[in-house]
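User: Show me an example of a complex going from sequences to structure tokens.

Assistant: Sure. Here are the input components:
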Amino acid sequence: MGTHPENERINMRWDGWGDPDRAHGLPGGVKLLLAGVLGRVPKASAAPSLAGVVLTTPPLDDADLAALADAVGAAHVETGHDVRLLHAGGKSTPDLLRRRQSEQVAPGAVVLPGSEDEVAAVLAVAGERGLAVVPFGGGTAVTGGLEPDAGTHRGVLSLDLRRLTGLVALDDTDQEATLWAGTTGPAAEAALGEQGFELGHFPQSFEFATLGGFAAMRSSGQNSAGNGRFDTMVTGLRVVTPTGILDLGRAPGSAAGPDLVRWFLGSEGAFGVITQVRLRVHPVPEVRLFDAWSFADFASGADALRRVAQLGTGPTVIRLSDEAETGISLAQVGNIGQALARGCSAVVVHEGTDSLTQARREATTGVLRAAGGKPAAEKLAASWDHGRFKAPYLRDALLANGVFCETLETATTWSNLHVLKAAVTEALTGGLTQEGARSRVLCHISHVYPTGASLYFTVIAGLGPEPLEPWGRVKARVNDAIMAAGGTISHHHGVGTDHAPWLEQEIGAVGIRMLRAVKAELDPAGIMNPGALLGGS
Amino acid sequence: MGTHPENERINMRWDGWGDPDRAHGLPGGVKLLLAGVLGRVPKASAAPSLAGVVLTTPPLDDADLAALADAVGAAHVETGHDVRLLHAGGKSTPDLLRRRQSEQVAPGAVVLPGSEDEVAAVLAVAGERGLAVVPFGGGTAVTGGLEPDAGTHRGVLSLDLRRLTGLVALDDTDQEATLWAGTTGPAAEAALGEQGFELGHFPQSFEFATLGGFAAMRSSGQNSAGNGRFDTMVTGLRVVTPTGILDLGRAPGSAAGPDLVRWFLGSEGAFGVITQVRLRVHPVPEVRLFDAWSFADFASGADALRRVAQLGTGPTVIRLSDEAETGISLAQVGNIGQALARGCSAVVVHEGTDSLTQARREATTGVLRAAGGKPAAEKLAASWDHGRFKAPYLRDALLANGVFCETLETATTWSNLHVLKAAVTEALTGGLTQEGARSRVLCHISHVYPTGASLYFTVIAGLGPEPLEPWGRVKARVNDAIMAAGGTISHHHGVGTDHAPWLEQEIGAVGIRMLRAVKAELDPAGIMNPGALLGGS
């Protein structure tokens, strides 16, 4: 059973990242590198075909489907095998590994409302009929937040807002735009670009994720120091909950009690469905200036980034790879010679109007130079920019070749950064060694703040043909280490189901009670994304 | 009965603003101006003496006092007439007018805990014995949030954190400081200044208000574009609720669910007591550059400020007075000739390191000039800076002379700014005319954002010897007009009891249910600041 034409969107690969046409094999250079680092790794076993997977979640019954058809129209209730499987999870490495199993859990139906009223109608049907609802966004979640978990309910729906897309309003005086939550990153930029504006929010998931997903996950873009954090761009939200609709964000800078917009940034679909996002937009920059820098070591590079963040010279992007990541990256872009050199590379981008941007770049340059930075080939920065959305495709190639590859991330204050980095690295390598796997851990700073920074880790390991369970043990050890070392359980991947067991350590028992109290008030039947954020009951 | 020495702090005037030694009469120029604007205004009737006021709230019983003494020590439970009266309300004009009545409501006792454990112990006693608790902060609230309202309880305590002051920790690498919530603005700056840092948060209440109060009220400083908003400076909070303690703000940029710090910014003491505030601090600026500008009218000036905010050239202060306020201000500083000229004056301040600050100032200057601004005498900016904390003293002199004077404020998008300004002005002048009073309304933009700005109104009126009730009617009309015109009920004074009836229009019925759900969870007995934020039950 195919997809109804009106529900079409270029789907990501069902068992990998992104556009199937852009999948590729392992570059020769990487193969060589891997052999040196991990030794001989057996190829992964062949995955089942899409059609060959058996879906274990029972489909919904006829009365369910009739009620849903009443809510959104029969054409927008998809129950085909392929569509359900495409909505069976997110894109973490464990998600992709689960896609190789012969039996898989999938939502009973994928429901595609065409208006806010229809979203409310779907939640009403779900509440009446005892069905859980998982808001799908763009399907790029990496912390288990899209698990088709029925919780205590009879069945589970995937709610896909791909019909709620595009610009609702743009005020060019206020430089503020309202967009439907189902709009993807590229669609938003295209709609705004026609009128000379841009969002400039570029997380790794940019090409597929939706604005509603960015908001619900407190997304952090790669424009780390500029428009990096989605939560600083959002000025208003509309949210449909099972018990009513919220229209939040009445005025900039209001002091009318707690800012409830902020409650739904990071809400992960646990309280309701974000249907519209109002955002600050800005004119398309006149110039973008790329610089690459080299530092003697990670500590001196981190110190330089700190000085830039605290002085506030305003780069749009500023990131620093550690020694291990610098070596691998240089190898990837073919600079094997440089890869053998020591040090850490940084990428800096400034953008905006011509005159201000030049001045800011000069100020940043002054700080980095004074902190021991040496200018490096500019093409390294351009190469980062060119390749910024390609990493997940490389992961697919690695997994296909039997190499386990995953990313995880955290953040802390500057003064605690190296303690946290060492603790996570030790938990990864120690944990993987205990599982009998050789590994390599790479790390970079992707986001800087005046008081601290994020740490983004990539790990590759020879975990063997059944990596799910051993990786689960290693990941738990890493999360424990993050909490013990004072880090946050997530700087930008979110909580989902994977991190939910650690949330109480993050916000305390009283914080958990606050979340549960609002959940009970807005979603008394507990139908919204059971298991995500607050974990199973 | 005097105050125990350990509980001493320079108190504000019991029946006016600030330091009694800085009170003054009406300057001759202002008297002249008033006669022209308002006509003949009868002098206010004499207020009772401090000792002559009868307190109508029954004092607590012996068992209450014994339990409180157990919690904080007998020396820190103040029940003297004067101390109670000094904690009987905030500093809005209605508050000050109520201080002239012969019978007044006051808290049964003022309790001064000396540790976080003692705060928790006071809340426990209050819960057990059916007493409401009003966190006092620095006592500068202007929206009724300090009303000694027992709600459904038997009595009411004022909780004063003046013993919980000073620096807990300062990390100069992270540029982050933790301070006790009872620390006043000047005390915080003194403690940080010793180590080369500053907060740079200067609301009108700076000299008396506390950091806990700044946080609880989502305070906005006069450094509007720099460190104006307290909520952007706060990185962590400790909060004692009746049912447990929260320690929030684990890492910069966390995406671990909703940011609960933001729930308590604007919480107004309705959920618990903020005991510690963690903040981003910054080095004391090398330079501060003051500029004054003149615009042909408010519309062109506002448009110029918008361009600066959207380009992000980074002034610390940027504010614009409308024609009426410009005239009065110039008259006050003795420039009567200029006061007769048309136009609107703006004040701009840049600060930071020498080189960056000069560059930013040049960029701002370029924008303002291109938008039609003309440089004005720099001394006007210096004069604003010099007089920035004096306005409330002038209000005391006006009230003593029978002239009603009050301020109120709101915010909206740039495109709605003039509609909102006209609506508020009409509600004020129309309402006051209906009450038989001549009036003058002044307005300025104090805070700018990329998407909008705040509007701050000052009104003077000849409302007669009993202005409380007629002003109540006018203020209600203004609040209705703000909501009808799309403004927020408060940009920085907060909700308190005065604005509580309008909060549902601001955040919707579902938003109110969220606040009530968290209130019921954290404060099931409803002892925390009844009436504030959520209004009476």
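The lines above are the inputs; the final block is the predicted structure for all two components together. Residues 500-522 of chain A form the longest helix (23 residues).
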